[in-house]
């Protein structure tokens, strides 16, 4: 059984889309199992359907308003670098409405439902493919994996949305008596889950460089400090997931093909820039093509 695993990474998901496009269209990979965390969960439905042009259009046209119903930060572009500041009025308004987070992302849920039609959902549900999204149950302190096989259209769309909710900047969702948030808080790269579900070969797209060589700029305000802290934590979780995935694969005789970003794409994946994301999609495709060519050259004749 072949599986595609796509890590979390916010706007960097555009790069993953390019990699997946090459693997599906040029290498002919037909995945039985597709698992996504956060931005990865947004990609897997259309990748499974083979509607790559459609999801590419979404990823290369999305902006901040497509995601946030209440955006808690401002974006400043200075000396070629994007940084974020606090949108004080938006944050105060959110707290006055009783929200537990700085911002809200209900526009993203609407975008998901506008992008995935009920017909597409039931086509996937009736196919041989299994789609799984990762969410973090904060109430029970555990990671949960939600399969398309277990839910109807409305609820599965909601689980995709929950998988992407990067708190405290996006919505905290209370569901089934528990509080849920971004799956990346517990499992950035669900390789172990893919093998547990029977995968014998895994293509894992990691939205991070293989070797850490980033020296972050000093924090400019409380929000930039918070994003730096979360980025540090998620990097550690990601590395742990990869180590565990390699160990489980070794014990089960499974193969993992890793696709890392060759360079640092951004230091803040909450910023959705259409032009930048279009370039990342193309970069992902070209990177996968280059990696494939190198692999073929190493194969014995």
User: Rg, please?
Assistant: 18 Å
- Nearest-integer average pLDDT: 91
Total beta-strand segments: 10
Rounded to the nearest angstrom, the distance between the terminal CA atoms is: 26 Å
> pLDDT under 50 segments (min length 5)?
none
SS field, number of helical segments: 11
Structural class: alpha/beta
General form: globular
Which series of helices and strands comes N to C?
EHEHHHEEHHHEEHEEHEHEH
Portion of residues in beta strands equals 15-25%
**Main beta sheet strand tally, sense and closure:** 8 strands, mixed
Helix share bin = 40-55%
Task: Give a written overview of the molecule.
Helix 1 packs parallel to helix 2, helix 1 crosses helix 11 and helix 6 packs across helix 8. The model has no long low-confidence stretch (mean pLDDT 91). It contains eleven helices and ten strands. The strands form two sheets. Strands 1, 2, 5, 6, 7, 8, 9 and 10 form an eight-stranded mixed beta sheet that branches. A two-stranded antiparallel sheet has the order 3-4. With 301 residues, it is of the alpha/beta class.
Quick tags:
301 residues; eight-stranded mixed beta sheet; 46% helix; globular; alpha/beta
């Amino acid at each position: 059984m072949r599986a595609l695993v796509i890590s979390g990474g916010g706007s960097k998901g555009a790069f993953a889309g390019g990699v997946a496009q090459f693997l599906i269209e040029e290498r002919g990979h037909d995945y039985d199992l597709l698992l996504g965390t956060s931005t990865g969960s947004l990609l897997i439905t259309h990748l499974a359907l083979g509607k790559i042009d459609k999801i590419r259009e979404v990823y290369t046209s999305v902006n901040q308003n497509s995601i946030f119903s209440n955006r808690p930060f401002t974006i400043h572009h200075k000396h070629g670098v994007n940084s974020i500041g606090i949108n004080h009025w938006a944050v105060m308004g959110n707290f006055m409405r009783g929200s537990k987070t700085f911002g809200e992302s209900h526009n993203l849920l609407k975008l998901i439902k506008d992008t995935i039609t009920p017909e597409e959902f039931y086509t996937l549900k009736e196919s041989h493919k299994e789609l799984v999204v990762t969410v973090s149950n904060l109430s029970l302190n555990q990671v949960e994996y939600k399969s398309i096989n277990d839910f109807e259209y409305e609820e599965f769309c909601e689980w995709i949305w929950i998988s992407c909710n990067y708190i405290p900047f996006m919505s905290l969702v209370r569901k089934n008596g528990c509080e849920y948030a971004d799956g990346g808080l517990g499992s950035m790269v669900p390789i172990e889950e893919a093998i547990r579900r029977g995968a014998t070969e895994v293509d894992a797209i990691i939205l991070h460089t293989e070797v850490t060589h980033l020296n972050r700029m000093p924090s400019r305000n409380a929000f930039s400090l918070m994003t730096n802290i979360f980025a540090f934590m998620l990097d550690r979780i990601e590395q742990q997931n990869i180590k565990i995935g390699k160990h489980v694969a070794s014990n089960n005789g499974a193969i993992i093909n890793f696709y890392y970003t060759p360079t640092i794409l951004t230091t803040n994946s909450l910023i959705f820039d259409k032009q930048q994301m279009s370039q990342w999609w193309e970069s992902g495709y070209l990177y996968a093509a280059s990696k494939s060519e190198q692999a073929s050259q190493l194969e014995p004749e």
